[in-house]
Amino acid sequence: FGEAPTPKASIRLHNTTCCVIKPHCVAHGKLGPVLEAKFRITALQLFYLSSAAADELLQVYKGVVEDYHALLLSFVDGPCVALEVAGQTDDVDAHGDFRKICGPSDPDIARQIRPGTLRARFGCDKYRNAVHCTDLNEDTALEVEYFFKILDR
Questions:
Q1: Does 106 reside within a domain?
Q2: Where's the Nucleoside diphosphate kinase-like domain (predicted)?
Q3: Is residue 74 part of a domain?
Q4: Cα torsion for 70, 58, 18, 96, to the nearest 10°?
Q5: Nearest CA to 11 among 60, 82, 59, 81?
Q6: Which of 4, 18, 40, 150 is the most buried (most CB within 10 A)?
Q7: Distance from CA of residue 22 to its chain's centroid?
Q8: DSSP 3-state assignment of 139?
């Protein structure tokens, strides 16, 4: 009979944001607790990013992030889970509110000033910081489409 085709993720691209649960978080069994954030998941898929794919995704950080290579490695050292995230209701600012739940990108800082955030709870260091979330709202569509239209072929 053969294998059934994997259904394509359907994305909304309206009042959503992109989240990537990084490989170290997946490997340490923290996927469930991260997914418990108070948001609707409108698309979800597991990816094994190659260095080239991660580099393409992270282009905007070249020359901005102190150790770009460490950032790149934090996406390729195992499977990651990409999500399109929406608010529970349409009046929620999905992008802004989800960034608040993620917390500061450095988990050490997050533990001091926002201890309940995802990065404070599950991050190891500045690069293995549990989750990536889209920095700028206008980049949401680019990141969501990268995972769910370009990589998901």
A1: no
A2: 14-152
A3: yes
A4: 80
A5: 82
A6: 18
A7: 7
A8: helix
* 81/84 Cα distance (integer angstroms): 10
Expressed as residue numbers, the domain containing 22 is 16-92+131-148
Per-residue model confidence as pLDDT tens for the chain (153 residues): 555 555 556 788 889 999 999 999 999 999 888 887 788 999 999 999 999 999 999 999 999 988 999 999 999 999 999 999 998 888 889 999 999 999 999 999 999 999 999 999 999 999 999 999 999 999 999 999 999 999 976
- State the pTM of this model: 0.90
For residue 117, give Cα distances in angstroms to 14, 42, 89, 102, 131: 24, 21, 21, 5, 11
State how far the Cα of 148 lies from the Cα of 10, in Å rounded to an integer. 8
In a domain? residue 44: yes
User: Which H or E element spans position 21?
Assistant: strand 16-21
Q: Which two structure tokens, joined as six digits, stand for 46?
A: 């597991």
Over the Cα atoms of the chain, what is R_g?
15
